[in-house]
Amino acid sequence: MTDNLIDSNKSQKYIVPIGPQHPALKEPGHFEFTVEGEIVVDASIRLGYVHRGVEKAAESRTWTQVLYLVERVCGICSHAHGTAFIQNAEALAGIEIPPRAKVIRAIAGEIERLHSHLLWLGVAAHEGGFDAMFMYSWRDREIVMDILENFFGNRVNYSVNIPGGVKEDITPEFAEQLRIKLDFLEKRLKHYLDVVNDDVTFRARTVNIGTLGKEEMTRLGATGPTARSAGITRDIRVDRPYSGFDIYPINMILDDHGDLNARFVVRLKECFESIRYIRDVLEKIPEGELSVKFPRKIPAGESMSSVEAPRGELFYFVRSNGTENPDRVKVRTASLCNWGTIVSAVAKGHKLADMPMILAGIDPCFSCNDRMVNIVGKEKNAQLWTWEQLRKYGINYHAMQEGFNVSDCGIEQLREEK
Amino acid sequence: MTALHPLFALFIFPAGLFLILISFFFEWLDRKLIARFQNRQGPRFLQPFADIFKLLAKEEIVPIGVHRTLFMALPIFAFACVMTASLYVPFFGFKAAWHIRGDLIIAMYLLSAMTVCLGMAGTNSINRFAVVGATRTLTQLFAYEGPFMLALLMPALVAQSWTISSIADYASNHTWMIVTQPIGFIVAIIGLIGKLELPPFDAPEAEQEIVSGALSEYSGRGFGLFKIAKNVELVIGLALITVFYLGGIVNPLLFSIKMVVLLCVIALMQSTLTRLRIDQTVGLWWQAGAILSLAQLLIIILVRVR
Fold first, then answer.
1. Structural domain includes residue B179
2. Which pTM value belongs to this model?
3. A222, A248, A242: which is closest to A306 by C-alpha?
4. Which of B39, B209, B284 is the best substitution to test chain A (most A C-beta atoms within 10 A)?
5. Hey, which end of chain B has fewer CB within 10 Å, N or C?
6. Per-residue confidence at A357, pLDDT binned at 50, 70, 90?
7. What is the pLDDT of residues A63-75, one digit of tens each?
8. Which CATH number characterizes residue A92's domain?
């Protein structure tokens, strides 16, 4: 009898799984929310469904090829990835790119930020069940996509960077076209900011939801708009200005509320800042060459570089061994830094209904942050296998499944000799 | 209006088959309006019909862990509830197919029974999304049911009859009740949105959290029947509010225009508001909805006593 009572008490808690396939998720990831009624008491996350081995693939490609490869790490911030990587390569090769190229890189980065933030605005509103905002912001995002397509030839992976500079020049005609479109976009963004600040039902879903203080955010290592929404002054464009931002500085947008609404406000205000920056810089792009010659082989060495991607700090480590290929490329994306703020801090105590919006609040990008980590620690059962061993294991395993012994027919030997 | 043969009225027109067909039109209009408000194209005219047609022809998968008979019976029961309720409601300016004393209570009871069926369908399954969805459906039922019922009972109080047809007659011969009882009208309209689980009260089937709520495990015919039941419920709700608050039984064209205008209002609210959490929904209904309708009730009583 008592056992039953205890069991029935236990059964009040149960796990609501979200993902890997779920209507709320546009990319695969797995979350488990332990709920008591509607209140979430525990959260866990499992990533790695879209690990693609980009870092490993980079090691067998030339420097130029790797640039196009890393642009495909993320479909939304492809320019940030390309810039972060190529800055490393240029630093190792000892190349200084022309100022005009630097500024064009910065402008492309800001256009990308506009499209990323508009995309996020739509997704986050959709997660809260506000589909009208979703539809309208994605319609307006098409304007940014048109700019990207007209200028760089592609809507998504636009490859502005080439090793040693940029591919496309900003002509006066394009600048004029850009200004007209930015004017319209600014009008629309003002409207969205009004909705975010004033709409009663929208505020009911965002104000004081997912609040995290400055100390907690710092402890958990949040970056990007997520950190800035809690008042942490952390913006790579300002802290360590890279291409273009060292010539013309950009302002940092801060908010001190740290809740979901602050994340909306910070991102929208960043859009205004981006528009202002693009407008200002278009007036005074330095004249000069677009690119300098880039060597085929890069001297041995190590380099690190950070770029402020729309989601936060994007970090690249590159090691060269003096050949045509990089020896090691390490990527750390902003989403990975921000996961901790949700899973270990914000989720607990909130309602299940708030979870999709809180999850979307950090602007997660799943396929960017999936990395393989090989931990060789004190645990005995951790194993390091060579490729040969793995292959042998695979052959044996499948032979066992088929029901014959490989060593008898000599396939194994044959392959080993080969 | 000339009297129709009772059986014809029951099965073909205005209740029965015609009602199901017209409910497709209203679903299409609702979806199309929301789509246009949201700057989308929206579905084609025959889309809802095609959806239902396809669903009814599809295999119905019975998941593991459910009570099989209940699983199969609930959609039919829900459908039957709604179709029975429709018999007492005058549609499109035609007299109701049937009327007995106190049929307003019966109609409201049957409409609530349909929601209870939804809740049972959710709790019947072992799917966690369905269970959470069912909990929310039933919680929401307790939230809007009281105010919504009061909002529909107030015309009855004024007309001094519990029969829908006599209230309709009263409404046709007097000032529109939207003028005399504006609060009741607002509560009724918002209550209808809550009853149909449309945005912003769609927490019970919030796809971002709990996939499809109580109906997560339903497919094929069962899902199709639930869908028809909800569409018909929409038409019944619109018709009831139109009859009670917008001038009773008038000629069919005018009546349809009134219903479409009501639908426009509902669609506008659906597309401009953010989904409320279930606790916010309940809070809103008990803090604002209930008090508003009670105030309206008090006004009616005071006026009548004087």
1. yes
2. 0.83
3. A242
4. B209
5. C
6. confident
7. 999 999 998 888 8
8. 1.10.645.10
Please count the residue pairs, one from chain A and one from chain B, whose beta carbons lie less than 8 angstroms apart: 78
Tell me: the pLDDT tens digits for A55-100?
Answer: 888 889 999 999 999 988 888 888 999 999 999 999 888 888 998 9
Separation between Cα atoms, residue A9 and residue A11, nearest integer Å: 5
Closest chain A residue by Cα to residue B269? A132
pLDDT digits (tens, 9 = 90+) for A111-158: 999 999 999 999 888 888 888 889 999 999 999 998 888 888 888 888
The most confident of the ranges A305-309, A356-360, B155-159, B176-180 is: A305-309
Q: Which residues in chain B are closer than 8 Å to A191, comparing Cβ atoms?
A: none
pLDDT band at A342 (very low <50, low <70, confident <90, very high): confident
Contacts of B37 in chain A (CB under 8 A): 132
What would the pLDDT profile of A25-48 be if each residue is shown by its tens digit? Answer: 778 888 888 888 788 888 888 888
Distance, in Å, from the CA atom of B143 to the CA atom of B290, rounded to the nearest integer, reads: 9
- Which of A191, A200, A201 to mutate: most B Cβ within 10 Å? A201
- The pLDDT confidence band at residue A3, using thresholds 50, 70 and 90, is very low
Q: What per-residue confidence (pLDDT) applies to A151? A: 83
- What ipTM goes with this model? 0.82
Q: How far is B277 from chain A (nearest CA, A)?
A: 6
pLDDT number for residue A1:
35
Low-confidence residues of chain B: pLDDT under 50: 1-2
In a domain, B128, yes or no: yes
Let me know if residue A118 belongs to a domain.
yes
The answer to whether residue A64 sits within a structural domain is: yes
**How many domains is chain B partitioned into structurally?**
1
Amino acid at B52: I
Does residue B52 belong to any structural domain of this protein?
yes
Q: How far apart are CA B296 and CA A93, in angstroms?
A: 80
Does a structural domain hold residue A379? no
Residue B1 included in any domain: no
DSSP secondary structure of B78-129: HHHHHHHHHTTSPPTTSPPS---TTHHHHHHHHHHHHHHHHHHHHHHS--HH
Q: B144: which 2 tokens?
A: 């809007």
Residues A303 and A396 in one domain: no
Q: What is the pLDDT of residue B29?
A: 92
Q: How far is A35 from chain B (nearest CA, A)?
A: 10
A182 and A289 together in one domain: yes
Residues A391 and A336 in one domain: no
Q: Are residues A335 and A392 in the same domain?
A: no
Which carries the bigger pLDDT value, residue A13 or residue B52? B52
Q: Strand, helix or coil at A35? A: strand
Instruction: List the single best residue of B138, B212, B274 to mutate versus A (max A Cβ within 10 A).
Output: B274
Amino acid A402: pLDDT: 73
Q: Name the residue among A133, A170, A375 with its Cα closest to residue A268.
A: A133
DSSP 3-state of A40: strand
**Could you give the CA distance from residue B214 to residue B142 in angstroms, rounded to a whole number?**
16
Domain residues for A394? 387-417
Plot region of A285 (φ>0 → left; ψ -120 to 50 → alpha; else → beta)? beta
User: Based on the domain organization, do A85 and A232 belong to the same domain?
Assistant: yes
Predicted confidence (pLDDT) per residue in B151-167, tens digit: 888 888 888 888 888 88
Helix (H) or strand (E) holding A45: strand A39-46
Domain count, chain A: 2
Q: Which domain holds residue B81?
A: 6-305
* B203/A125 touch (CB, cutoff 8 Å), yes or no: no
For residues A129 and B34, the answer to whether their CB atoms sit within 8 Å is no
Chain A contact set for B39 (CB, 8 A): 135-136, 139
Token output for B250: 């008038």
